[in-house]
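User: Before I run my own analysis I want an independent prediction to cross-check against. Here's the chain; please return only the structure tokens and, at the end, one sentence I can use as a sanity check.
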Amino acid sequence: MANDRYLPTRLAFLTILALVLSSFYPDPVVAQDGHKTIYVATQPDFPPFFFIDESDRLTGYDVEVVRGIFERLPEYKLEFSVSAWDGILLGLESNKTQMVAVGFNWTEERAEKYNLSEPYFQSQNYLAVKKGRTDINSLEDLRGKTLAAVVGTGVAAGLQKWNDEHGGQIDIRFVKASGNMADPLIEVADGRVDAWVEEYTNINRVLQEKDLNVQIVGEPVLVYDNVFAFRKDEEGTELKSKVDAIIKELKKDGTLSQLAIKWIGTDKGVPK
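Assistant: Structure tokens:
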């Protein structure tokens, strides 16, 4: 994401856009040509996976994977619904959207509640600490220290589970998503928290764009399959089955790898 997207005016625009679009979810309809409209919920502020580019077009790895899927499902018409994170699952559960594409991490708890697709990406989450620190390289090293995570995410759930199973000695501070990936890293650089956990691609992108006194350390502390989410009803099960079949095709013919290289710079996270 270009630096100007971090300016207040740009963030204000994205926030207003998300609120407007999230409040307008037409019910699923069948057009006169027989194509059923599928509304796919995503977010506007998480490059390189889903974001709005300089021409105000929604794009990114996840978005283009979804477009590639529905190009091979001609019985459907694809529409994206941009929403803030807090409203994503509410829209799905109320059938205002039929699919969620927000880098959703597979977890047992989510699999019990939603239909989850074949994985289309593997999220490798690393620790980010203040540059020069040598005392933190793993979650074990964070005992008695502070760690920040965005509430409601798969990463936050994974960190809480690890902490509970290891004596609860990490002071995990759950924060609300700000829409600016640099914010938590600034907290780390300023010493307000000892560490932050995030997908490697996202941390590295911010560090390349901004001169922050932060470094990525150690090995991945959490690894998740990224999946699309659907409701657990007849319609959601049918749509998941069709999407799963196309994801397998996109893996096999190399399309997922091509999209990952284009948008992320590597296909390391593409499932085999």
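Sanity check: The CA atoms of residues 69 and 246 lie 6 Å apart.
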